[in-house]
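Can anyone check this?
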Amino acid sequence: MGSKRRGRPLHGWFILDKPLGMTSTQAVGKIRWIFNAAKAGHAGTLDPMATGILPIAMGEATKVVSAAMDGEKTYRFTIHWGEERDTDDAEGHIVAESQDRPTPDQIKDTLPLFTGLTQQVPPAYSAIKIAGTRAYDLARGGDAPKLKARLIMIHELTLLTCPDTDHAVFEMVCGKGAYVRGLARDLGRHLGCLGHVSQLRRVRVGPFDESVAFLLDKLENMGHKEALDDLLLPIEAALADIPAVPVTGPEADRLRFGQAIWVPHSAEGAVYATTDGRPVALAKICAGEVRPVRVFNL
């Protein structure tokens, strides 16, 4: 039996414009196969019915996935009024209906209630783990979990248009953990008309937006490895909000061995160390010391 194919040791970010109907896991597998990458993972799940920005980390970039996931995200989505569904989106079964429809002014007057730091109960069909089992697996098995409300941050929530009385299109800028489907459910209940998400597109994740994203069809037609590799963004592209601290070669060696180095007069907090323009480690500065948290093997 031949040895298992391991793939190429690529390091960086590929920003996929995920197509409709594909899971995030399937998308990562497809991109990893196209690039023949040894290791890959995504920053922030997108439902199959959602399209848009799916940052895919390769190699050592997987060590900074949390930095991308913790950044702000921007969504554009359509709510279909009059039906609440068990999944809070168009793929679910109708569980309640209403003949009422909100006016644009009623919708706009409601949005401030859902902006800022608020409480939200995640959808039953979500990837949250309950005693080691995904909530959506429990829900599909007929045992939908009772999830607890948690604090989320919605920075901006804007009504873009109402194409007809049954639909409204929104844009939302939010922090980690906010569910568009949960917002649609809660808006529908508050307005007394019920609702679910019928279309969803993510247009930004942290520093990554549509300007650096590629469609899967275009990628599959490129073919040449060199052309594909040119599409990768550097590891530090996900660290735009984290200060960089330049270090010397010997200091970089100490960090790689898990040892702290002394950097006087530096503000405390999260940083990433670099040497010769290459990332060395994610680190924290505390009491003048740069302490490595995740070291890059480049």
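Reply from J.R.: I decoded it. The first helix runs from residue 24 to 35.
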